[in-house]
Design a protein that fits this description.
heterotrimer, A mainly alpha, B mainly alpha, C alpha/beta, A: two-stranded antiparallel ribbon, B: 4 strands
């Protein structure tokens, strides 16, 4: 019991931090620009493929720096020549614009790297088990993930709360005219924010690529889970997203560990007939089988009972 | 089909005395077109495609009750489409046999009722919020429902879905609904009824209040309407019509699988509605026809269809956010004032370089695609029936010149066309004022 | 009015183009309805490459009945409803042989569509050649006269795999892990029944269902498998769900053997290599390229000269097409009404090993020698590695045709 509890907690924290790593860029864009960036997962995929391509030529570590910079640049171009035009038509138009972008990025990635998974490896330097608990090894690369994730969280927090740039960014969202009159270039601030968001997605891609599977469908298969993180955490709250990531990571991990079902609680169903077959589907579902839908259940419940999210400052 | 879409754009009430007659004429024209279409396009594919288009018209219009009319962005509209389909399929299987009490014609009502019931159920939860929170709740509900479709294998038929034979129920007037053409008329009939019903709703005071909730929820609240109730009613009714569409889709394909209520289906209906235009009743109709057509045909023409699809969509959002119907509606005042002939040459002038630029883009895309995906076929390829070597610099230069030159000319001509539109509009207004 | 005219003309010409296409020339048209874009595109593209290769080979030898074979791809995006529209399109273009395989949901939709279409349109019959979907219902309760299954179905594969495992005394505790949908459940149910049967020395220590294509982090599942003390894992997972599972096992340093159904699919060998699971992952298929059979290996080399990305994934496509061509020639007609009876009960020397298999007339299930193979470093006469990993599939056990035969509940309705 202790063993499964301890290992589940550890797995949950690691997975939660991976989620935060993936969602941090989305949080930045969503909370500062109000844009639901559907192309976030596509930037994440671009980061993974750029990282892969760079690692083939000069190694993993340069890729960790170059790929996010490239993707961030692409993000800025997208903002400058696309989103900015769309901005005046409202949030729905912005969202749909990024939705269209996902098609294009996926097709381009398929054209360049093909439809098969590519062999993106964990760097030699980190390719060893860091420690062992109850005969389960934990690879060093996972700890590296954890470390980067926390570093990004702290750095973003510092920038937003403690620097002038952060203040301007926050003010640009709520009072763009006033910020403009004070002599700041609001357009450039937004472009920068979008670039940073895309770049963070790419960081996640470079790191998650070797750990998971780098393939042209990786954006699609990520699904809307990251939106759950951002919304549950609360719009405009980086700490909220951090807590939500941890919560979801732990929730899913502990759910997988449980095999309880209604049949365990109330006993097996008896009798037969067509209706029993339908009911037994529900009766025998284990908590583990529901692990993937739990975040969405959490999302719906949070939005009903606490619409500003866990730590949000205003309603979404 | 084009006739339906163009004339079917009633837009805002014109305030002219002949409005009622014109509206009636349009609806009669729609009915005639729906009836005649299968005689004109009689191939199996054409009829299947038109069936699908009409189903999608209902689906997209029902979605626009939310997005266009009430200002609610939903990411889970396919839930009602899919559940309506499943229940229709189960009902068909239950009613199978010699003594089936009901004819096929009424089964879409099962879908509609399902959509309504689930619309009420989920609406009670989702419509308590608006804006992004509403969108996210619908996203969550859509995920929950589509996940349970895999877990509840008996109710949803597992991976194979629920199949049935549509000919095994009561036959009215000897119509078996075996041939696709008969199903076409069933779908066309329901499509006409649903279009009429949804159009009627936009004309009622309720439809107007929905618009008010979209435009200014606070003020609508101040004048005594409960905005949550209005959203709830709109949501339920959108569910009803989406359910009818789902039921028709089930009858059309004789099978329902979980992909009918997946995220892709929910995304498609957003695309259709937006590309067609949310601000106009005819918009979703145009969007449904166009997007369905592209989905069916584009993948045959090019392997890189997703790229074109994305480009088209981004282009629409950037340059024509009011959708195709919005662009057409902009021309209406000119047509009425007899000024349209002034702008038409400018449009053509802009269109030609625009097409050239598009040719350049697609030539590049096709060359890339050929070199990367079809490597095994060698560098020889043909584009627009012209054969050439995709590796040759000349081909790339031609494509680049087409693209750059076309784009530059398009920008120039486009500006002129906009100016021409502006001055023609000015004339049209002053002409009317002077009358 | 002019606009109306123009748009009608455009619409007419596009609809008309399809009719024109059909009348173009007299070829034997084969419609390939499989995913060429989206999530399933990798598998679909490989199948298309192989079909093209087969067609070129046949055409170079004079075609079938003197007609050239033409492969027409139809992208179904792995969606059952899109597939049905595509099948309709293929039929309009004069295709009467539909090749489809990926996704049991698509296969059952196509199977039931084709059956209904044929009964409603006598004289226009088409045949459904299923090269990959293995849901048992396709050849049991929902079987059809117009459907032929060329891959061994779930029941056959589970039977063969569990027999192989039972024969291995080192296997004591098996953990079952499958995707939570009908295919996963049919594998898990059959395997639990076989392994847990009386007299079996194997204990099933877990029967887990994983949400389909929703899980990013498999380490909690690995923790559970470890806690159960299993020495072997049997999994019906495929695609990302298998790759991530195996990588998570490699990360955690879990030392068990893996018995799978789809470890050969694109991308998975790469994941197995990354997880360093040398000679620990087994799969069951109708054969692998490293079987020592020269005619096949020569073909594979020829194929790879053209499509260097991968060796031949789907030997069954060669069987399927070879048998269809043979039936057409025997019948002297490419009308399915005429050649389907020839296909029923046909015996055929398999592409992969030259051994004889047969198409059972009762349910249109093809029975062939099955192979259990493991992935690892290659030896002599094993020239083909996977995805540039240096590792390839090596035969661990051969299951003769007679041992693969399972019963069927099919009650075939013949026209």
């Amino acid at each position: 019991m202790l063993e499964i509890g301890l290992i589940s907690t550890l797995n949950g924290v690691l997975f939660g931090m991976l989620l935060f790593l993936m969602a941090s860029g989305l949080t930045v864009i969503f909370s500062m620009m109000g844009v639901l960036n559907f192309a976030h997962a596509s930037f994440y995929m671009l980061g993974a493929f750029f990282g892969f391509e760079i690692s083939r030529h000069v190694g993993f570590w340069p890729g960790l720096v170059i790929a996010p910079v490239l993707v961030g640049g692409i993000g800025m171009l997208v903002e400058r020549y696309g989103l900015r035009t769309v901005h005046k038509h409202g949030h729905v138009a912005e969202l749909l614009f990024t939705f269209g972008l996902t098609f294009i990025i996926e097709e381009l990635v398929q054209m360049v790297w093909g439809k098969l998974a590519v062999d993106y490896r964990v760097p030699q330097l980190l390719d060893f088990p860091a420690f062992t608990i109850f005969s389960t090894e934990y690879p060093a690369f996972k700890l590296f993930e954890l470390f980067i994730s926390i570093a990004i969280f702290l750095a973003l927090l510092l920038v937003i709360k403690r620097t002038r740039v952060g203040l301007v960014v926050q003010a640009s969202l709520s009072h763009p005219e006033m910020v403009g009159m004070l002599g700041h270039n609001v357009d450039r601030v937004f472009m920068l924010v979008f670039g940073v968001g895309a770049g963070l997605a790419a960081v996640a891609g470079v790191i998650a690529g070797p750990a998971l599977v780098t393939q042209s469908n990786m954006a699609q298969s990520l699904g809307p889970i990251l939106f759950v993180v951002v919304v549950v955490g609360g719009l405009g709250s980086l700490s909220g997203a951090f807590v939500a990531s941890l919560l979801i990571g732990l929730l899913q991990t502990f759910a997988v560990a449980s095999d309880a079902s209604l049949a365990d609680v109330f006993g097996e169903l008896t009798g037969n007939g067509p209706l029993i077959a339908y009911v037994s589907d529900i009766w025998n579902v284990t908590v583990a089988q529901l692990s993937a839908v739990m975040p969405y259940l959490l999302l719906v419940l949070i939005l009903i009972f606490r619409p500003r999210g866990l730590m949000g400052t205003r309603e979404t | 089909m084009s006739k339906t879409t163009q004339n079917g754009a009633p837009g805002r009430p014109s305030g002219q005395g002949s409005g009622l007659v014109a509206t009636a004429a349009i609806w009669i024209a729609v009915a005639v077109v729906l009836a005649v279409l299968p005689q004109v396009f009689s191939s199996g594919l054409a009829i299947s495609t038109m069936c699908l288009m009409e189903i999608m018209i209902i689906f997209a219009l029902s979605y626009n009750m939310l997005l266009g009319q009430t200002g609610l962005l939903s990411f889970g509209h396919a839930v009602f489409f899919g559940l309506g389909g499943y229940l229709t399929a189960h009902a068909m299987n239950a009613a199978r046999g010699e003594h089936a009490p009901l004819p096929l014609e009424v089964f879409p009502l099962v879908g509609g009722a399902t959509g309504l019931v689930f619309g009420i159920l989920f609406g009670a939860v989702a419509t308590r919020r608006s804006g992004t929170a509403f969108a996210m709740i619908t996203l969550g509900i859509a995920e929950l429902v589509s996940s349970s479709a895999l877990i509840l294998r008996h109710a949803f038929g597992g991976e194979e879905g629920v199949a049935f034979d549509r000919t095994r129920v009561l036959h009215l007037f000897g119509i078996s609904f075996g041939p696709q053409e008969q199903v076409y008329y069933l779908i066309a009939g329901w499509c006409f009824l649903s279009m009429g019903g949804m159009y009627a709703i936009t004309r009622t005071p309720f439809g107007r209040i929905c618009n008010a909730v979209r435009d200014n929820p606070d003020r609508t609240g101040f004048i005594g309407y409960n905005t949550t109730t209005v959203r709830f009613l709109a949501f339920s009714m959108a569910g009803l019509f989406a359910g009818i569409a789902g039921g028709l889709a089930a009858l059309n394909f004789e099978i329902v699988t979980s992909s009918a209520m997946g995220a892709a289906q929910s995304g498609t209906v957003v695309l259709m509605t937006f590309i067609g235009g949310v601000g106009n009743f005819a918009g979703p109709i145009i969007g449904a026809i166009l997007v369905t057509y592209l989905q069916v045909m584009l993948s045959d023409i090019t392997g890189a269809w997703q790229l074109y699809f994305g480009l088209l969509f981004m282009g629409m959002v950037m340059f024509a956010p009011t959708g195709i119907a919005g662009l057409l509606a902009m021309q209406m005042p000119l047509v009425r004032a007899g000024q349209f002939h002034r702008v038409l040459p400018w449009y053509v002038l802009a269109l030609v370089p625009g097409l050239i630029a598009i040719t350049g883009v697609s030539m590049m895309v096709e060359m890339c695609f050929h070199l990367t995906v079809n490597t095994a076929d060698g560098p020889q390829m043909s584009f627009a029936h012209v054969a050439f070597d995709a590796n040759s610099p000349l081909a790339w230069a031609v494509a680049a010149v087409l693209l750059a030159g076309g784009f530059w000319l398009f920008r120039r001509a486009g500006r002129k066309a906009l100016d021409a539109y502006g001055s023609a509009l000015e004339k049209a207004r002053s002409g009317r004022a002077g009358r | 009015m002019r606009k109306l005219f123009v748009s009608t003309a455009i619409a007419l010409s596009v609809f008309g183009a399809t009719a024109f296409h059909a009348a173009a020339e007299d070829t034997l048209k084969i419609g390939y309805v499989d995913p060429l874009s989206g999530g399933g595109a990798a598998a679909g593209q490989i199948g298309l490459n192989q079909l093209k290769y087969i067609a070129e080979e046949v055409n170079a030898n004079g075609g079938v009945l003197g007609k050239q074979v033409e492969i027409i791809p139809y992208d179904n995006k792995l969606d059952p409803q899109v597939s049905l529209v595509q099948v309709q399109k293929a039929i309009d273009q004069g295709v009467r042989i539909i090749v489809q395989g990926n996704g049991s949901s698509v296969a059952s939709a196509v199977e039931s569509f084709v059956t209904k279409f044929n009964s409603r349109n006598p004289g226009k019959e088409v045949v459904h050649i299923n090269h990959a979907a293995i849901d048992p219902s396709l050849t049991n309760d929902n079987c059809s006269y117009w459907h032929f299954a060329f891959d061994a179905n779930v029941n056959i594969k589970v039977e063969a795999m569990t027999n192989f495992m039972k024969a291995n005394d080192a296997i004591k505790k098996v953990y079952l892990i499958s995707q939570d949908y009908s295919f996963g459940h049919s594998v898990a149910d059959a395997a639990a029944k076989k392994l847990g049967a009386e007299g079996s020395s194997i204990e099933v220590v877990g029967n887990e269902f994983v949400p389909l294509q929703k899980v990013t982090d498999f380490s909690p599942y690995i923790a559970k498998i470890k806690a159960s003390g299993a020495d072997s894992v049997m999994t019906a997972n495929w695609g990302n769900d298998l790759q991530l599972l195996i990588k998570a096992a490699g990360d955690a340093g879990m030392d068990v053997n893996w018995y799978t159904f789809y470890a050969g699919l694109a991308g998975t060998p790469t994941a197995i290599k990354q997880a360093s699971l040398e000679d620990k992952v087994f799969q069951i298929t109708e054969g692998v390229n490293n079987i020592d059979y020269k005619p096949m290996q020569d073909k594979v080399k020829e194929y790879m000269a053209k499509y260097p990305d991968a060796p031949i994934y789907y030997p069954r496509l060669f069987n399927a097409m070879g048998m269809v061509f043979k039936a057409v020639e025997e019948a002297g007609s490419d009308d399915p009404v005429k050649f389907v009876p020839k296909l029923e009960g046909m015996h055929y020397a398999d592409f992969i090993d030259g051994k004889e298999g047969f198409m059972r007339a009762d349910d249109h299930q093809y029975f062939q020698t099955m192979y259990i193979s493991g992935l690892g470093p290659l030896g002599a006469n094993q020239p083909f590695d996977e995805e540039g990993t240096g590792w390839g599939w090596k035969v661990a056990a051969t299951v003769p045709v007679d041992d693969t035969i399972v019963s069927t509940t099919c009650q075939m309705e013949r026209p």
